[in-house]
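This part of the workshop introduces the protein records we will be handling. Backbone structure tokens are a discrete shorthand for how the chain folds in space. Once this layout is familiar, the rest of the handout is easier to follow. The record below serves as our worked example for the rest of this section.
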Amino acid sequence: QVQLVESGGGWVQPGGSLRLSCLASGLTFSFGSYVATWYRQVPGKERELVARINPYSDRTTYADSVKGRFTISRDNAKNTVYLQMNGLKPEDTAVYYCKFNGLQASEYWGQGTQVTVSS
């Protein structure tokens, strides 16, 4: 059974940093073959793509709102995808989810981790 477990969320003051982790287990295909994406969602709003990292090439994509502040990366040896978040703003407050897309249209979501940015 595939499981994605996010961690690293919490409360931070504006301007602070957090690093989110998404640990994958039970994957059918090799970890490096999956597209990994971080999303976030605020109550009452649609889930928003934050950052994505492609397999093999490690090409990355970011939402305009986080460019230059957030960095997505992956450690294939640890089956983990990271989201380094610097210069956090109150508008970054949300539940953050990771999603994996793999071969044969497979798709998996984590349970989410809360990030709160406030003074």
The chain has no helices and eleven strands.
